[in-house]
Amino acid sequence: MDADFIYRRPDTLDIEPGTVYKVGIPAHRCHLFHSSGEACQRLHQETGA
Length: 49
Prior knowledge:
The protein is mostly loops.
């Protein structure tokens, strides 16, 4: 991936640039943004929203 990526965890991890790190993100917890900072359209419908 040639972009900034933020993956928030309750623990602290020390990962060096270039390290391969696999994450799994449930669709309802994934939020994507354009480089302008504007949120991308969500394709997952939140229940109760």
